[in-house]
Amino acid sequence: QVQLVESGGGLVQAGGSLRLSCAASGRTSRSYAMGWFRQAPGKERAFVSGINWSGDITDYEDSVKGRFTISRDNAKNTVYLQMHSLRVEDTAVYYCAAARLWATTKDGYDYWGQGTQVTVSS
């Protein structure tokens, strides 16, 4: 019903920046909260950031506060994650997800993208 496709991942040196995008298609007329999650090898998929439908409420995992910014453009059906001051420990596959209700855990999200790899080198 809702399809999500991430893009913008890649290889970057520590201290660098990337902007991830998540394009939504399908039943985008519904109001969805959006989230970004990441999963590093051998670790659980973890919440990174979330944003409500109107974009005026956001939340961030502690380790990315002040470095990452989530935003959305509903006219373009796109959510973004601007990432600055990247660290090696930020290396992971990043996933976007959509939820009908606000959630900060993976179980609260209904739709998921395929993921995009972010690799931060020292």
Describe this structure in words.
- With 122 residues, this protein is mainly β.
- The chain is 0% helix and 52% strand.
- It has strands spanning 2-7, 10-13, 18-26, 33-39, 46-51, 58-60, 68-73, 78-83, 92-99, 111-112, 116-121.
- The strands form two sheets. Strands 2, 4, 5, 6, 9, 10 and 11 form a seven-stranded mixed beta sheet that branches. It has a four-stranded antiparallel beta sheet with strand order 1-3-8-7, with no helix packed on it.
- The chain is globular, with a radius of gyration of 13 Å.
- The model has no long low-confidence stretch (mean pLDDT 95).
Oligomer: single chain
Strand content: over 45%
Largest sheet: 7 strands, mixed
Average of the residue pLDDT scores:
95
Q: How many angstroms separate the termini?
A: 40 Å
| Annotation field: number of helices | 0
Secondary-structure element string:
EEEEEEEEEEE
The backbone outline, from C-alpha atoms, is: globular
Rg calc? 13 Å
Model regions low in confidence, pLDDT < 50 over at least 5 residues: none
Count of DSSP strands: 11
Which bin fits the share of residues in helices? Answer: under 10%
Category from helices, strands and their pairing: mainly beta
